[in-house]
Each structure stands twice: as C-alpha cells, then as structure tokens.
Amino acid sequence: MKKGTKTILLTAALTLGLAAPAAAANVAVTLPDFPVTLNGTAIDNSYRQYPLLVYKNITYFPMTYYDCRFLGVETEWTQQNGLKIEKSSLTGAYHQQNAAAKNNKTATAQIAAGKITVNGKSIHNGKEEYPLLSYRNVTYFPLTWRFAVDEFGWKYNFSSKTGLVIDAGNAKTSSVNLKDAQIGAEYETFDFAVDQNYLYYQGKQGEIYRRPLNDWSNDKQRKTMMQVPKEDSYWVGYPTIHFQEQAGNVYLRYHSGGASFGGDYLYGVKNGKLGKELIGYSYDEYVDFGDFCVQVAGTMVGGQPTVPMTYLGKDGTTKELGVDGYRYHATTSAYDKKRKQLYVSAANTDRNAKSYLYAVSLADNQLKQLSSNCTSNYEVADDYIYYLSYMKPDGTADANYSQRYLYSIDLKTGKETYIDYAGQSDKDYTVLYAAANSGVYYRNSSTGSFMFYHQATGKRDILNDGFKINLLTAQNGYVIAGFEEHPKSSCRLAVYQSTANGSKQVYGSADVSDKAVVNADGLLVYRLNGSSQLVKVQL
Questions:
Q1: Are strands 41-42 and 73-78 parallel, antiparallel or unpaired?
Q2: b vs e for 114-129, b when ≥16 Cβ sit within 10 Å of the residue's Cβ?
Q3: I want to staple 269 with a disulfide (CB 3.0 to 4.6 A). Which of 66, 250, 289, 442 is the partner?
C-alpha cells in the first residue's frame, strides 16, 4: 500500500457474463503480498480466477457479478452506455471461483478504455492517476478516496499486521460448503433446517448432523445425532431426510419401504437433542402448535381413515379432536389461540367427497364449516384464512380442476373474498402463496408478477414484475421469496415483513436459492441453487 496519502484502491469488476470495455496499453501487475479481508472474509488469491492485483503499489479488487454484490455494488455494461457502477442495497454471498492452475505472482493487465460512470458521474480513465484495468476479460476499477469513501461509503483499514481490511457496510454474509451432505440419493439436493442454535442436515452415509450456527464452518464442532438405517429391500441406499421447523422446534421425517407397504418415521429435535420416535411406519401428520401437538391419520393402503385427530398436550394429556366420519388435514399455522380454535380442511366419509375449511373448537369439539369453496390448501395469519380453490369467482368449477383461485376468509365476520387468479397446478411451476399478518403474497399467473394483497385496503402491490418465483414461504414473521435467474432481475432472493400500510422488503440478495429458512432470531439461512453451499445473514 502507498503510505502517507488518503488513497486506497480496490478493484471493481464488470458484471460476470457481460462484455468488458475495450482495453489499451499493457501494464505490469502483481499479486498482493499482504492479507486482504473483505466483509469479514479472508481472500485467498492462490487459485482465484480473478485475483486481487497490485498496480503502482495500490491494491485492486476484482468485482465479478458476485464480487461486486458481495460488497453492495452493482455493475452494468452496454455497447451504448459503457460500464456503469452503482452503489446498491443488494448483497450476496462470497463465491470462491478458482482456476485450475495456481496464479503467478506477476502478470500483465491492460488499461481499460470506453465510457465509465460511477453513481452517474463520468470517469475519464485516460486522466486518472490510477486507471481502470482489464485482466482476464474483467474490468478492474481503482477506488481512490473519493470512490471508496465518498461514493461507496466503505470503511477500511491497512496495517502491517492485518493487511487490508474492507467493510462495505452492507449486510454481512457467512458461508459454509457442506461437502459431507448427502446429495443425489432421491433428489439432486439435500434438505436442512435451523433452530436458534443449530443447523441440521443429512450426511452421505445416513448420518443426521448438527453444527452450531455461531461456528458452522468448524468441522470439529459437527456432531452426529442419529444414524438412519440403509434401505436394502425396496431400493438400495439411505432414505432422504426431510426437515421442518414448527413452533421453534425441528422435526425430521424419512420414508422406509415402498409406497404401498412402507411408512414414515418422525423424530423431534429440541435444543440440539434428538427426541423419541413420534411416528413409526405410518403416514400420519404431526403438527406442533407450541401449546400442544396434533396427530392426523395419514393415507394408507385403501385410503385415509375417517377418524378424529389426536390432541397431544405438553402435559401428557391426550384426547380426540374433531368427530368421526371425516378425513382431516392441518397446517402449521392452523391454531387460533385467541379463539381457541383449530382450522382444518376436512372431507366426509365419501371417498370422492370434497374438502372444505372448518373450525374445530378446542372447548367443545364442535365442527363449523367456514368455506363455501372446496379446498385443502390454506394458510392462517392474524384474523384471516387464505386458501386456493379450483372454484371460480362466479361459483362454477374449472373444467379440468387445475386452475387455482386465491380467496380469503375474515374470521371476525365469516366473509369470503376473491383475491386473484393464482395459477394452474399442472404447469411447470407450483402455485405459490404465503400468508402474512396484513395480507398475502402470491404470484399473479396472468401477468407473472409477484404481488402483495393488502387485506385492510384491498390494494394489490407489484413487488417484482414478471419474474418467475421458484420459492415462497412464510416463517417466524418473515416471508421469503426466491426468483429465477434473469439478466433484468437484479434481486433473486428477497425477504419481506408486513407493516400497517402493507409490506416492506427487509433484505435483498443477488443470489439464486432453492431453499431458504429463517429462525426465531431473524437469522436467514439459504442454499445457493444447485450447490452444497449454505449462506447465513442476520436480518
């Protein structure tokens, strides 16, 4: 680093996948011989595809698509406008992109040419003391004091002991690559869950692992909680474990045997300790509502039994819930503590009977029908139930039973309201929606837009226009939405919270994710799409 000046340089790279500006004269560059830490992550230059460089005794940092978003910066290049670099509220995980060969300590870069703007201000590269460079077809942008501090608001420090330390001031992410996770057994991915202290996932030989969230990259802290037996009859291999968090507790379920004569096994996990077997060799549902749990008879050979649900009190008491002659289903949001009711979908003894929404009184066990439309897919939030049905707003049924329409029920008045057309269940996407305290998030299938319906006003807000949703879930007061990778969609993972006036986005990431969860402390954990890398960030 140059001493005695208020100048510090990093690189900014052009967005990965876009062409770089034209390059001119060659210049000699070297790898830094001091440590570099960015947003708490130590950078290893040894095999890095786009390593940090030093030019004129100044450090340059390459921002590829992922690197720039890791530091809260977005880049765009077009033939007409050249390179645009803007400070952004987006963030992203650190991606270690390595080359096959080890980097040499010295290399040759080029001085970049073309139009360049930073936060809307034109940069004349030929007049800059520290010009932009091009290396391996990626643009490196030198940040003087006016860029690092005045434009991007970064904090930095350099010392002979710690080297260069940069804090971009955006949300800090931390990653772990779970090379020990089981991938490709039944699915080309793996499941995971978190509570307030631990991460849980499945190992390659049927192990159930836990790692402390505050030290999850330390393999010495990994503990084996359980060993799942290997299948050798119906198929050979280890069953895939499915994890779910309910009322702050984690549950793990796996299937053993065939579809007709096999069954599921369910275990609970609390404070990092495996509990007793809750369900053995059956398809029963088990839902934890905090104050109590409910077990629902599952579908077996010959159909689902038409028997009441079982109430399981935390004090050990059990009782029947509901009445004979119905097939029940309950979601994790179904308990209304204020009204002492459980909201369920239920169908009578006729195997072809349709399911409707009912309220089950915990006091007298009475069943009260709530919905006029048939449904088995519903969520409860605050004083409303949101549900999907193939019944159209005019009261007629969709001819193919595949179209889905979104409705709400006001639990104070019993009024049903049609909200919007939500999609077709047999197309290449799942009909997704997520209930929140002040409304419901969903995809409008007619326009493709991601929407928020504000229950109090009936207003429909467009949150992300026209980009396919591949992930939508509500958990612990947050709604997580994941979007497809698309050049025009800079935000690929977003987290929302309800407000009195509607909805607000509390986090945005450039990362594409295929699963994301958030615990009761607001810690978001998500998996990078198609990988074994998990990322965590405090909301």
A1: unpaired
A2: bbbebeeeebebeeee
A3: 250
CA distance 283 to 299: 6
Assigned token pair, 285: 């549902």
| pLDDT tens-digit map of 316-355 | 999 999 999 899 999 999 999 999 999 999 998 776 689 9
Note whether 157 and 165 are within 8 A (CB). Answer: yes
Query: What are the structure tokens assigned to 173, written together?
Result: 């992410």
Residue 83's pLDDT is 87
The Cα–Cα gap between 160 and 158 comes to 7
Q: What is the DSSP letter of 297?
A: P
Statement: the pTM of the whole predicted model exceeds 0.85: yes
The DSSP line for 23-88 is EEEEEEEE--SS-EEETTEE---SSBSS--EEETTEEE----HHHHHHTTEEEEEETTTEEEEEE-
Read off the pLDDT of residues 163-188 as tens digits, 9 standing for 90 and up. 989 899 888 899 999 999 987 544 55
Best CA proximity match to 76, nearest among 119, 112, 110, 109: 119
| Separation CA 464–CA 99 (nearest Å) | 35
d(CA 408, CA 199): 35
Instruction: Let me know: does 524 contact 495? Beta carbons within 8 Å.
Output: yes
Q: Considering just the CA atoms, what is the radius of gyration of the chain in Å?
A: 27
Give the DSSP letter string of 313-372. Answer: ETTS-EEEES-TTEEEE--TT-EETTTTEEEEEEEESSTTPPPEEEEEETTT--EEE--S
Q: Which residues pair with 37 in a beta bridge?
A: 42, 165
Q: Is the pLDDT of residue 428 over 50?
A: no
Question: Does the CA dihedral 366-372-376-378 come out positive or negative?
Answer: negative
Enter the tokens of residue 447: 């326009």
